[in-house]
Predict the 3D structure of the following.
Amino acid sequence: MIKSEYKYSDLTGKIIGCAMEVHKELGNGFQEVLYQRALANDFEMQQIGFAQEFEMQVHYKQKHIGTRRVDFLVENIISVELKAVTNLEPVHLNQALNYLEAYNLKVGLLINFGKPSLEFHRLHNKKFTPSVKSD
C-alpha cells in the first residue's frame, strides 16, 4: 500500500471510531442532525479537521448547475454522509457515491446511526482522477 492509501485507511478508521463512540453513547432513534452535532464534537476532541455541511458546486458538461452539501468533508479528502434510518436503501449508497464523483474525492463513508448496531460503508470512487497536488 502506498503512503496515501495508509492515510485514507488511518483516517477512515478514526472517523468510524468516533461514530462508534457516538452510537454507543446515544444509541439509535434520534434525528440525523443530533448525530451530526455529536460527531462534530468527537472530531474536534480527536483533532480531526473537518468542514460540516460542506457545500460544493456540481457541474454538468462544464456548466455549473447547482450545489450539494455533504455532511462532512474530513481533512479535505474524505466525504462522510450520515443517515439515521432503519434500513439503508440503494439510493443512499448512490447519493454517497455521486458525491464522491461530483467532488472528485477518492474515498467516502456512509454511516447509518438508525440501527441498534452502527452501520457503515467505505466507498471508493472508481472515476477518481488524481490532481497534481495529490500524494
Observations:
- The longest strand covers residues 63-74.
- Strands lie at 50-60, 63-74, 78-83, 107-112, 119-124.
- The mean pLDDT is 91.
- The CA atoms of residues 28 and 116 lie 6 Å apart.
